[in-house]
Structures are given as C-alpha cells and as structure tokens.
Amino acid sequence: MEFFNALSEYSFMRYALVAGLLSSIACGIVGTFVVVKRISYLAGGIAHSIIGGVGFAYFLEFSPVIGALGAAVAFSLLLGFVSLRLKEYEDTVISALWSLGMAVGILFLSKTPGYNMDLMHFLFGSILVIGDSDLMLILGLDVLVIAVVLLFYKQFMAVSFDEEFARLRGVNVERFYLLFLMLVGLTVVLFIKIVGVILVIALLTLPAAIAGHYVRSMNKMMMMAVLCGMVFTSSGLYASYTYDFPSGAMIVVVAGVTYLLSLAGCAVMRRTPLR
Amino acid sequence: MSDAIVIKEVSFSYNGPPVLEHVNLTVPSGEFLGLVGPNGSGKSTLLKLILGVLKPQMGEITLFGKTPEQGRGRIGYMPQIAQFARDFPISVEETVLLGRLGKTSAFGFYRKRDKEIALQAMREVEVENLKDRPIGTLSGGQLQRVLIARALAGEPDLLILDEPTANIDMRKEEDIFDLLQKLNERVTIIVVSHDIGFISKYIHRVACLNRTLQVHKTTEITNDILQGLYEHPVHLVAHQHPPYEGR
User: Fold this and answer.
1) What is the ipTM of this complex?
2) Owning domain of residue A218
3) Confidence of residue A13 (pLDDT cuts 50, 70, 90)
C-alpha cells in the first residue's frame, strides 16, 4: 500500500513508473527480434560499448545523451559490420570491442571531475531521478523504434528468418541488419536511465525469451514481451521501494527469476523453449 | 518462344581447381528439367550462378534475356531444407507471404492482394488448412509444400527446387512430383536431385553435371550414361513415359 501512496504523493515515483512502462514497449518489440535472431551477445556488445560514448561526452562537456546516442549508432554499425564480414571470429572481435568501449569510457570519466556518481548511474540506472526531459527522450525513441519496425516489419521478419531467401527476393539483407542493430542501440539508450547499460541486456532479452516459451508467433511474442517488460519494471520498482533496494537491480532480479522459473516450468511440462 | 535460362561457356572456381568447366545449357520456357550429379559435382554452384549469388569467371548467363540480378525476381526458389531455424515463431501463412517480397510495397504490412495470392498458392499445394500452424509443427512433407507455396507466391515464371524431396518418404515424394507436373503446365521447372531413376518419369530432359554438363532427353538415358556420370555402377529403374516433343 505504501508504494501506491508514494505513487500519488511523489511525482518522481510516477515518472519512474511511466518511464518503465514506456520503455517496455520498444524493448518487447526489438527484444523479440534479438531473441529469435539469436544475437543477444551482439546486443550486449552494443549496450556496453555505449559507455565509451558517454565518457567521451562527459570529458568534452557536452550532453551525455548525445554521446550515448552517437555511440549507439556508431557501435551498432561497427559491430554489425564485424558480424557481417568477420563471421569466423565474430565473438572474439565483439568481446574486444565490448570491453574496449567500456574501458575507454571509464578512462574518459576518470579524467572528468565528479565522475563517480554519474558512472554508477550509467552502469546501473537511476530510475528515481527521471525528469521531464528524460521522459521526452524515452517517448521520442520509443516512437522512433516502433515506427521503423512497423515500416519495415516484412523485411526484418524475412532477414531474421531466412537471409538467403530474403536476398533472392531483392531485400538488401545487410542494410536491414545494420538498421536493426541501430534500433537495438537506440533501445539500449532508452533504458540507460532505468536499469543502466550493464543490466539492460536482461530486459532486452528476458521478456521476449519468456514469451517464446508460450507462444509461437512473432506478433504474440512481441505483445507478451511488452506485457512482461511492463510487469517486471513496475513490480521491480514496487519491490525496490518497499524493501529499499536499488531499483535497476531489483527489476532485473524479478525478470531473471521469472525467466528461470519459466524455463524450469517448460522442462517439467516437456515443452521446447525457443531460448 | 523465349528461353528461361541461357548459359554459355560458363566456368567457375573457388580459388582452386575448376568446379564448373565450359557449361552450356538452354532451358526453353515450359520445360521440366532435372539437374543431377554426385555430391561435389557443382550443382549448388551452378544454382548460385543462375540466381546471381555468384558470378562466373568466364562465360555468360541470362535469365529471360536479362542478367541474373535483373531476372531473378521471376524465379521462385526453393532451397534445400534446414536453411533456417525450424523453431522460428512464424506461421505457414507468414512464411508463404515472404514470397511476396519484391512484388509488394517496400513499406508497411502486406496488402490484401498479397494475402489473396498467398492463399491461392497455399490452396494450390494443399496446405491451406495449415495456414495458422507454426512451421515448427509441420512434417517434412508439409514443410516442403509450404516452401513450394512460398516460391509460388512470388508469381514466378521459373521454379528452381533444390532437392525438394530430400527428407521425405517415397509416397510423399510422388505426391510432390505429381504436384510439380501440374504446375509445369504454366511454369518452367528445374529440379535438382540425386535420384535420377525416380524423377525421370516426370522430367523432359536431364542435365547431368560433374564439372562439365551433358544434357539428355529422358528417353535416351541409359545405364552407360549414368555410370559415366557417377563413376560407379548405378541401377536405372525401368520406367515408361511418352517421349518429350518440346513445345
């Protein structure tokens, strides 16, 4: 009950809740493609290397949001290119770029006064200090991601399912793959305030993976993933407020435990989970 | 009468010994051609060249009088099975609709007309009743039919099927070829197969590939030709069919 009182009393609680609900939409949609295309590792690489852009922005004293957006686009293109051209050692190169991006970000931040607090926020989220401008950013990215997916739904579907066939039907497979990875990068940026870049991969993949345990169509998976994301962010927020835990970590714990329980449930019921 | 495919003096190698040498083949519209050859004979390479995925180092290929890139939109291609994850969350109808790519608007969802054409294709191969099933729940034979429907949804003038009956039992195999024979009334068909004895009662000519290509009318196939191709004894199953007169 206390949680609901807090919701009506404090605007930052309402902002946190709304931010979580809004982000869950883009996350469920993009996450479904990440799960069925089996590129969570690549998505993780994009997420973590964004710290490089953030650190760079802090060091040069321009907006960290711009830094994050720039890094999201740059690293998704870079990692996408690696994954397309260097198939054989894709995972090694991704690991290298993943940690290099983070390390460079930390170096830049260390040369910036007062970096400690900001670094923690970027790594683990700061859902309770979300303001109007953050909410507008989340809403804007949400609309952008959803619009692009709806516009090219057929192509994204074709490229995820059967690249060879898509290519023969005249779809520019590489271009749509890179475009999709950019959407992954933007979705990660959208989540920085909520759970931070370290934990974002959990929210990007777990709701969709859980949905994949129960439904066998992309549309239904997306809808269920969006719902799961909404439930996880709100119930995580609730638990973090009630028991006084960090909210980002709490949200991810709720998502992770639910995923493992669902997976165990599938094993017991002898269903084959997608992931 | 236009030719669906013209291959002139094509040679190809992947940075090594030649995989194809001086291949010549003309496939007239309306033909039902079998392409056979042992493993590693260059069948897949030849298909990739026809589809414009690879480029010949020597020689020339035209599809309906155009380059492979320009002409391949008129091809309905059915790959060998297992090019994609069977557990992918996609329904039969959604799979068949993918065949509309390149024929429908680039933006947004499929149009009503796309769905009608997809439904027609599913009806033709008799998988209409499976429309909403996820592809992961289909049997091998059902999946092959769905993939044929996907190829048909692009309203092709030429169907190329790579080992369409590789993973299904004999009786289903006959069903699939009966279906292809019916489709051949309006489209040119090329079937890649390892089982010449079986398919020869359906096809008009057989192209035997083993680095070089030789084309025979099915009436002319003898055990000697097959033995030369496979370099070991092959048993030719006796069969009868009306001789192919061409169109």
Assistant:
1) 0.84
2) 2-269
3) confident
